[in-house]
Amino acid sequence: MRFSLAALALPIAAANALTILSPSDSAFWVQNTSNTITWTFNQGDPATIDITVVNANNATLNGPFSIQSFVNVSDQTFTVTNVTLRPGDGYQVQFVNTSNITQVFASSAPFSVKPPGTTPAPPVNASSSATSSGATASATSPSGTSGSSTSSASATGGAKNGALSLTSSQGVFGVIAACGIASLSALLL
């Protein structure tokens, strides 16, 4: 009985396993070029997300900056064209709820935006077997530079990844709930 109650709580923890693979510390972005976001997901993850960029340094980026809305997570990749974010460190890509940007499903590792002319970082693939799908968008920072968002097909996606990740707050709460249920069942038995 104890084992079955703990097993029932496990799907709560594994439900959100969105993991942003790039950008990262080693997969930085270069200003005024196309840069790619790649990720893995699980079956229980949201079907669509909004992509934002944040930086704790308000002198670099003042508040969350929207890259694209309603991105299909099964694409596993998104190309951002003409990145005009200021060169600097401490940027993070966030996958957020399409109707509530304060609900963050996943955050990338902190990464840098390098100045134009820097040799781009090597690409990171979401999976080895890719299928053609995806989107691109133009991103312009809110620091006074103007631009617009556009879409076109040129990204690749791939198979689902079953890895468990605890990068989202919901995943952490799921683990806490699973531990609580396991402890409660031990007390009752």
Largest sheet: 6 strands, mixed
Strand-residue proportion: 25-35%
- Rg (CA only): 18 Å
| Order of SSEs | HEEEEEEEEEEEEH
Report the average pLDDT across residues.
71
Q: What is the count of DSSP helices, taking H or I runs of 4+ residues?
A: 2
Share of helical residues: 10-25%
**Low-pLDDT runs:** 1-14, 128-189
Question: Overview of this structure, please?
Answer:
The chain is globular. A hairpin with a 2-residue loop joins strand 7 and strand 8 (100-107). The longest helix is centred in the C-terminal third of the chain and has 20 residues, at 169-188. It contains 2 helices and 12 strands. Helix 1 runs antiparallel to helix 2 (169-188). It is 17% helix and 34% strand. Strands 2, 4, 5, 7, 8 and 9 form a 6-stranded mixed beta sheet that branches. The chain has a 4-stranded mixed beta sheet with strand order 1-3-6-11, with no helix packed on it. The chain has helices at 2-14, 169-188, and strands at 19-22, 29-30, 35-40, 48-55, 65-72, 77-81, 88-97, 100-107, 111-114, 130-132, 136-138, 156-158. The chain has 189 residues and is of the alpha+beta class. The termini are close together.
Task: Please specify the SSE layout and strand pairing.
Blueprint: H1 2-14, E1 19-22, E2 29-30, E3 35-40, E4 48-55, E5 65-72, E6 77-81, E7 88-97, E8 100-107, E9 111-114, E10 130-132, E11 136-138, E12 156-158, H2 169-188
Parallel strand pairs: 2-9, 6-11
Antiparallel strand pairs: 1-3, 3-6, 4-5, 4-7, 7-8, 7-9, 10-12
Helix pairs in contact: 1-2
